[in-house]
Specification:
With 312 residues, the chain is α/β, with parallel strands linked by helices. Helices cover 38% and strands 17% of the residues. It has a seven-stranded parallel β-sheet, with helices on both faces. Strands 7-10 form a two-stranded parallel ribbon. A two-stranded parallel ribbon has the order 8-13. Helix 3 packs parallel to helix 4. It binds uridine-5'-diphosphate. The site of uridine-5'-diphosphate has 14 residues, from helix 5 and strand 8.
């Protein structure tokens, strides 16, 4: 089997490339390195069947040879990244998705698109089920990401219904683990690097907003199972263990043994107040898939990664 992974040098993309190689697949990893990092795949370069190509998927993409699967993971994905790159974010979710769908159609490949819990916006339904249509502000700062992903989902379904392309849509909830960028601005890398450097921990708002954090290996296993399933409609993948951001910050401080204090800062515009996946469909459709890694264990592994990145 031969797969293309766009965004393959990113946090999730690189873990996915590795999983596919471990299954004995050939992998073409495509990335423009705007938020991806060659460091995430340097251990894969030289492995049998692995190839890296530096390409922007919003341009015409050409992949010689046969392809059985396409995993479309290219996109800035952290709030500060998509605020910095709003137009690239919209382009990769629209033009980029169009290019990979065209490629899937030409190659007869199955395409799995990385969607997001952000399609639910600041959700009025809790926990979020896949049949909830969401509460998104199209003209707010997060609109560039949320609407690009919503457009991507619509385009994927159009290619599926109109051209009969085999497609899968995964709605990814907050995920953490090794290979997150220390400076990507998300809660976990921010809190861990602040704790390790003895700086103040920056909680936004009063910290009462909730998120549910999934360890990367659990997420990748769910995505793998979804790609091999028959389900074309969106499936949530994430960990339903919900906590407030304040509790999360306290957990990181405790785990690192840091003396950092928690400080409170203005809440970014349109920051969702609550988020927790309803994973009933994933459990039913994906052979009882369920997150396995407890938060503390996942955080320890991530902490070791960040310590080595910081040379500690
Ligand atoms: N957050 C925070 N301090 C930070 C970074 C993030 O309190 O330094 C909050 C953020 O406002 C949000 C939550 O943590 O409520 C999760 O943010 P993240 O950027 O990780 O991802 P999101 O779930 O918002 O996409």
């Amino acid at each position: 089997m031969r797969a293309l992974v766009t965004g393959g040098a990113g946090f999730l993309g690189s873990h996915l490339c590795e999983k596919l190689l471990d299954k004995g697949w050939e992998v073409v990893c495509m990335d423009n390195l705007s938020t991806g990092d060659l460091g995430n795949i340097e251990h894969l370069i030289g492995r049998d069947g692995f190839k890296f190509v530096m390409v922007d998927v919003t341009d015409f993409i050409h992949v010689p040879g046969e392809l059985h699967r396409i995993f479309h993971f290219a996109s800035p994905a952290s709030p500060i990244d998509y605020l910095k790159m709003p137009i690239q974010t919209m382009k990769v979710g629209s033009l980029g998705t169009h290019k990979v769908l065209g490629l899937a159609r030409a190659k007869g490949a199955r395409l799995l698109m990385a969607s997001t819990s952000e399609v639910y916006g600041d959700p009025a339904v809790h926990p979020q089920t896949e049949d909830y249509w969401g509460n998104v502000n199209p003209v707010g700062p997060r609109g560039v990401y949320d609407e690009a992903k919503r457009f991507s989902e619509a385009l994927v379904m159009a290619y599926h219904r109109y051209h009969g392309v085999e497609t899968r849509i995964v709605r990814i909830f907050n995920t953490y683990g090794p290979r997150m960028r220390l400076d990507d601005g998300r809660a976990l890398p921010a809190f861990m690097s602040q704790a390790l450097k003895g700086q103040d921990i920056t909680v936004f708002g009063d910290g009462s907003q909730t998120r549910s954090f999934c360890y990367v290996n659990d997420l990748i296993e769910g995505i793998w199972r979804l790609s091999e399933s028959d389900e074309a409609m969106p499936v949530n993948i994430g960990n339903p263990h919900e906590m407030t951001i304040k509790e999360f910050a306290e957990t990181v401080v405790k785990l690192t043994g840091s003396k950092s204090s928690i400080t409170y800062h203005p809440l970014p515009e349109d920051d969702p107040k609550q988020r927790r996946p309803d994973i009933t469909r994933a459990r039913e459709l994906l052979d009882g898939w369920e997150p396995q890694v407890p938060l503390e264990q996942g955080l320890r592994t991530t902490l070791e990664y960040f310590q080595s990145k910081l040379g500690l």
